[in-house]
């Protein structure tokens, strides 16, 4: 039933249709996702959970919609329970002027059923209307998601995606959001300095105090990427902390060599 329902909305005449150019770009994104997963060359994507659910073939629910449009989901919940706000069947028609159509994300007004624009939302059918709008919004972008999955299929056997949750799939494509300093330290080497040096200790102390967003910015500065490999086996390059040759050190900033994942660290006094 779930598959049939998705197919119904995928073929809905008003579901968002991408142009040939947009479909090609979406398929390319799918291919890049597959490449990233197979080669652990992570993509710096920040997408809503509903997007990853669509890519992984999971069902999108109202909580996922709330993640991108809380006001919309809340308004439908209020409509269903509008009697708790003192609205009655007699006063309903004085404050609700909707019909069985809705605005799409790209601003088109479409009918939720044949002739829906001429069917008013009433006290008795308000829950039916809310359900119809929510269903439409859940599957509005299935055609776009299908284009991405088509691109994924060029690099990955799609049935394998069922082995992972959408969150796991996101991690496999994008890497871990949190920067594991223990993992980074385990793959750090020193040149012209040592881990026991005071200024190296200052460096790791500062790194511990950074938020993960700031740590990702540090990785971009030193490595040109914002996420670490998922485990020890994923490191094909070690982070190198090098001695800084100019004096006095407190007058200089660190120098990064991004291609080599290295940092010249001045011997700061504090």
Can you walk through the features of this model?
It is a single chain. With 270 residues, the chain is α/β, with parallel strands linked by helices. The protein contains 12 helices and 6 strands. The chain has a 4-stranded mixed sheet with strand order 3-4-6-5. It has a two-stranded antiparallel sheet with strand order 1-2. Strand 5 and strand 6 form a beta hairpin. The longest helix has 20 residues. The N terminus is likely disordered.
Distance between the termini: 64 Å
The parts where pLDDT drops under 50 for at least 5 residues are 1-13
Helix proportion of residues, in percent? 40-55%
Task: Give the SSE string.
Answer: HHHHHHEEHHHHEHHEEE
By DSSP (H or I, 4+ residues per run), the number of helices equals: 12
Largest sheet: 4 strands, mixed
- Count the strands? 6
The 3D shape can be described as elongated
Task: Kindly name the structural category.
Answer: alpha/beta
Global mean pLDDT: 87
Task: Output the strand order for the largest sheet.
Answer: 3-4-6-5
- Which percent range describes the beta-strand content? 5-15%
Q: What Rg, in angstroms, do the CA atoms define?
A: 26 Å
Topology:
Layout: H1 2-10, H2 20-39, H3 49-56, H4 62-66, H5 70-80, H6 89-92, E1 101-103, E2 109-111, H7 126-138, H8 142-153, H9 166-174, H10 181-186, E3 188-191, H11 198-209, H12 212-223, E4 239-243, E5 255-257, E6 262-265
Parallel strand pairs: 3-4, 4-6
Antiparallel strand pairs: 1-2, 5-6
Helix pairs in contact: 2-8, 2-9, 3-8, 3-9, 5-7
